[in-house]
User: Fold this.
Amino acid sequence: MDHVVSCFRRKPEAAARLVCFPWAGGGSLHYGRWGSLFPGSVEVYSVRLPGREARGREPLLLSMEEVVEEVVEALLPALKEKPFAFFGHSFGALTSFAVADALRRRHGLQPLHLFLSGASAPHSQTRLSAPKRSALTDDEFLQWLSSIGGTPPELLANPEVLKLFLPALRADLHVVDTYRCDKPTAPLLSCPITCFDGRQDVPHDLQAWRDVSSGDFTVRMLEGDHFYLKDSGNEKVLIDLVTKHLETADMDYL
Assistant:
């Protein structure tokens, strides 16, 4: 499991695990820090997909099916041990939902809570009509990256860094562009869902996430753009809210 999922700070006595899914092109390090920021009741796992960090030489995954297969296989033993929740931002919101859906269908498991950030629901018209980013030229791609923030300008101006960074980002965006999920005729999950978003980000159809679960649904908007969660103040709000939900979760509802 350690090859695919990192846990930078083990907490054997934790009541629940929080599995964090990266944004497009992202690795495990940002969420890895959260292991020290959450209290002892929450152990943080951080998903690391091929093409980044220690997995930099591995073939990239190009479909949601491939992402789900790898993550479910790696996580399943740990998820059977104790209650868990998922947090995903942008690309990570879609992958965390797809993994949660597969776990319920195949293994009868689902998260205590699904925390979704910076993304429209997969079946929403807002997402389906959005521009296909993976088809952009290199110049268009860099211009778009600069516009959404989150990537230091000096990195975007460094050809050597881009050579390492862009393939994984393009692969993840290809996964997003080709992922299809019909509007469910009945809820797929029963866990609560909390959606987060930056007020200055492009509008996302957060309300459509209501369709995927029969559990409680809430939305929390925070100041900032697409990468609002990198702000230390917003990060503290997120961690406090996630901790509160997990420490008061009904462990028996599953």
